[in-house]
Amino acid sequence: MKICKVCGAEVPDNASFCAKCGGRMEQEANPQQSQEKQSQDQAGQEQQAQYQQSPNQQYQRGYQQQGQQTQYQQQGQQGQQTQYQQQYRQQGQYQQYYQAPADPYDHTAEFDKKDISDNKVFAMIAYLTGTIGIIIALLAGNKSEYAMFHVRQALKFTVLSTLTGIVALVLCWTIVVPFIAVIFYLVLFVCRIIAFFSICGGKVKEPYIVRSFGFLR
Prior knowledge:
Strand order of the largest sheet: 1-2
Structural class: mainly alpha
Distance between the termini: 131 Å
Largest sheet: 2 strands, antiparallel
Strand content: under 5%
Low-confidence stretches: none
Mean pLDDT: 76
């Protein structure tokens, strides 16, 4: 039973009005709703307390958040740098693996640069003037390993030219052999020119055609 606050009469619990004076009865709040209201009030008080924090505390919180973001960025940059370094190392390994092999006919590294520059003219003469040039280079540069190297190569050209002339002379009646001999003479001449320009470039390479012959190395 409930008591009417106006007249003091007893009123049933489920009654909304007093049967005696007609006054409105105040209904008690639902306990579950009361708990929800209390929870909402507490949450509101916490938010208000956060808003009322001092500017120094807010600044510290923001600084901590920025520090965390900067740390994440640094970690990301370090990870990218490590990835790039690994890629560069892999590329370097691939380039080293697929590097072109050295030319076995290039002997430039075996001779002294001063020797090359001092006797370059004798080497050119040996290729351009045939037997006479070989004799001149042999007499003038007999103490130079560089000059002797090219004398040997030029001598190979002379030997091949002589053998080709002999074969063409013996088989001149075939017509085909002399024609082939002329073509071979032209090929040897082109190889001499290539060797000449190789000397101009400071290279010490065995000329084409004659490099296949093992004599006079």
